[in-house]
Design a protein that fits this description.
The complex is a heterodimer of chains A (about 160) and B (about 325). Chain A is mainly alpha-helical and about 160 residues long. Chain A has helices at about 20-60, 60-70, 75-80, 80-95, 95-105, 105-110, 115-125, 130-160, 160-165. Chain A has one domain (about 20-160). Chain B has helices spanning about 40-45, 80-85, 105-120, 125-135, 140-145, 155-165, 185-200, 215-220, 235-240, 245-255, 320-325, and strands spanning about 1-5, 10-15, 25-30, 55, 60, 70, 90-95, 175, 205-210, 220-225, 230-235, 305-310, 310-315. In chain B, the strands form 3 sheets. Chain B has an 8-stranded mixed β-sheet, sandwiched between helices. Chain B has a 3-stranded antiparallel β-sheet with strand order 2-1-4, with helices on one face. In chain B, helix 7 (about 185-200) links the parallel strand 8 and strand 9 (about 205-210). Chain B folds into 2 domains: about 1-225, Rossmann fold, CATH 3.40.50.300; about 245-255 and about 280-330, no CATH class. Classes of the chains: A mainly alpha (about 160), B alpha/beta (about 325). The interface between A and B is medium-sized, with 22 and 33 residues. Bound molecules: adenosine-5'-triphosphate, iron/sulfur cluster and magnesium ion.
Chain lengths: ~160, ~325
């Protein structure tokens, strides 16, 4: 217990086995925000770095200068042109958050004692339960493939150069 | 006009007292080797200098057809006033048609954005205007290609689209920064022809930047030759070719092949290299490479602007060229 906040698990002990109720939902939400912040900032930090590198590349391109030369304001230039192009690699990797969604982050889950599938896989590997671990990884792979497909579809919708290639 | 780049190794005087004017319906050609400051001068007019550039003096004035007068040099890079000038009174064409158009928007969208911004047209009107502009720059099938993305067009077609974008608001001044350098010679000739037609049709002034003298002879009315951030000679196009009064211009002209003249030897090149911009030589910047250089004079004193009618030369011995011309005119 830190700062009088109970961070581990999904529920406080008294709600662990209690029947469903509004109080239980509120209790769940009060536990959920910590893994949410941890997973979101962790993921966002990675994506922001990708986005930043892309933007730095794009801002120096001649078409940005053309946009300025048309008389558009700095804000319209940046949002309409380089951001549109820099978003591409972002979109192409966003599909991978689908398997991550399913497995959760193993470390976050173990540290915060969350009953996601991450610790389950870890357990299975530790116990050498190869059937469980194998099927688990198969499921993750299927999600990765589906996620990539979703990314590709989004990408084609977003960037005409990919659509016609 | 003066522009410097303060850098760790010292200050680069990219543009060092360049001065020119261009009148309505006139084409001013600007010639010079790579790095002589041609593009930086053009960007200073557009107020689109790189962020690390520092303007250390000078003034830029524009009097468009509408009769207002703009003191461009007083305007800030991203001010509202300068945005009203860009794209509206001044159009700009860039060197690289491959990358100068946004890859993720149709050419129609890009043209429409400009006319909607400056002329306040509705979407439908703007689209009609875009098609009309594409027709004007002789784009084939304008009604269909208005919805094409840049990667679906050839280099020449992209440059036409770029021109359509630049003239979309009937600018009074068109700045073309090496618009044909990336194109093959046939397309180059077509684009030049198109620019000439547009000039007489719309009556705009054109600043045409290039390092190709052949192109200059074709399109320009007057020519300015730049060397290391200075204009060394300005003259009517005929005088540049038949009565050049600066050794640098003469050297440049000698180093281009001429049809029907069997020179019977290799083309002469200019000796030496362009000095690096951190250490521009004292006196006349051209003196280490100049075959006419006068020791004691050329390497100490910056030559003044000497005028011969409408011709200007920054060379201490320009007088001599003027005299020899009278005895045996026009050969070089
Ligand atoms: N962003 C920058 N930072 C520092 N120096 C620069 C920058 N841009 C240009 N320069 C310097 O300014 C000088 C003039 O460059 P400019 O682009 O005007 O040449 P140019 O005459 O257009 O050449 P080219 O024919 O190759 O286009 C160069 O010597 C270059 O070193
Ligand atoms: S001033 Fe001297 S060095 Fe410069 S171009 Fe003239 S003769 Fe050559
Ligand atoms: Mg240039």
């Amino acid at each position: 217990m830190y700062l009088q906040i109970d961070v581990g698990g999904l529920f406080s002990p008294q709600y662990q086995n209690a029947p469903r109720s509004w109080d239980k939902v509120v209790n769940l939400l009060s536990h959920l925000w910590i893994p949410l912040v941890v997973l979101a900032t962790g993921g966002a930090a990675g994506l922001i770095r990708v986005m930043r590198a892309n933007m730095l590349d794009e801002l120096g391109k001649p078409y940005v200068e053309t946009a300025y030369a048309q008389g558009l304001s700095e804000r319209r230039v940046v949002w309409n042109y380089p951001v549109r192009v820099a978003l591409n690699p972002f979109i192409s990797t966003v599909g991978w958050s689908l398997p991550a969604l399913f497995s959760g982050d193993v470390i976050t889950a173990v540290v915060l004692n969350l009953p996601t599938t991450g610790p389950l896989l870890l357990q299975a590997l530790k116990m050498q339960d190869m059937y469980l671990a194998g099927s688990f990884i198969l499921i993750l792979s299927v999600f990765t493939v589906i996620g990539t497909l979703v990314s590709d579809i989004l990408l084609a919708w977003f960037d005409p150069r990919i659509r016609y290639a | 006009m003066q522009v410097q780049f303060p850098m760790r190794e010292g200050s680069v005087k990219a543009v060092n007292g360049v001065s020119y004017h261009v009148n309505k319906g006139e084409v001013l050609g600007i010639v010079g080797e790579s790095g002589s400051g041609k593009s930086i001068t053009a960007r200073a007019i557009m107020r689109l200098l790189p962020k690390n550039a520092k303007e250390t003096g000078g003034s830029i004035r524009l009097r468009p057809r509408t009769g207002e007068e703009f003191e461009l040099s007083a305007l800030d890079r991203n001010s509202r006033a300068v945005r009203k000038v860009r794209g509206n009174h001044i159009g700009m064409i860039f060197q690289e048609p491959m990358t100068a158009l946004s890859p993720v928007h149709t050419i129609g969208t890009q043209i429409m954005r400009t006319v909607q911004l400056h002329k306040g047209l509705s979407k439908a009107d703007a689209r009609a205007r875009a098609i009309e502009l594409l027709a004007k720059v002789q784009m084939p099938r304008p009604a269909q290609l208005v919805d094409a993305y840049p990667h679906q067009l050839s280099g020449g077609m992209r440059q036409r689209a770029m021109i359509a974008l630049a003239i979309s608001c009937d600018p009074s001044l068109l700045i073309a920064d090496e618009p044909t350098t990336a194109l093959d010679v046939t397309t180059e000739a077509q684009i030049i022809e198109l620019l000439k037609e547009l000039k007489s049709e719309l009556g705009m002034a054109i600043v045409f930047i290039t390092h190709n003298f052949g192109v200059v002879a074709d399109i320009a009315d007057r020519v300015s030759v730049m060397y290391l951030g200075r204009i060394v000679e300005t003259a009517d196009v005929d005088d540049i070719f038949y009565a050049p009064k600066h050794p640098y211009t003469r050297a440049l002209l000698r180093s281009i092949p001429r049809l029907g003249v069997d020179q019977g030897r290799r083309l002469p090149t200019i000796p030496g290299m362009v000095p690096d911009p951190f250490s521009v030589p004292n006196g006349c910047a051209f003196n280490p490479r100049c075959i006419h250089a006068v020791p004691g004079l050329c390497d100490t004193k910056v030559p003044p602007e000497l005028r011969f009618g409408s011709q200007m030369s920054r060379c201490h011995i320009a007088e001599q060229f003027a005299q020899t011309e009278q005895q045996e005119p026009a050969h070089v």
